[in-house]
Amino acid sequence: MKKIIFILLLSLIFPNAKIKSLILPGWGELSIDKQSRGKYFLYAESLLIISAYSFNKLSNSYESDYIAYAMDHANANLSNKDYMFALDVGSNDNISDFNNIKKRQRSLLMTLDLNGDIIREFGHEVYPEGAGYDWNWDSESNRSTFNSMRINSINYEKYAGFALAGMLLNRIISLIDVMFLENQKESKISSIIIPKGYNGMELQFYIKF
Question: Residue 25 has what DSSP assignment?
Answer without folding.
Answer: T
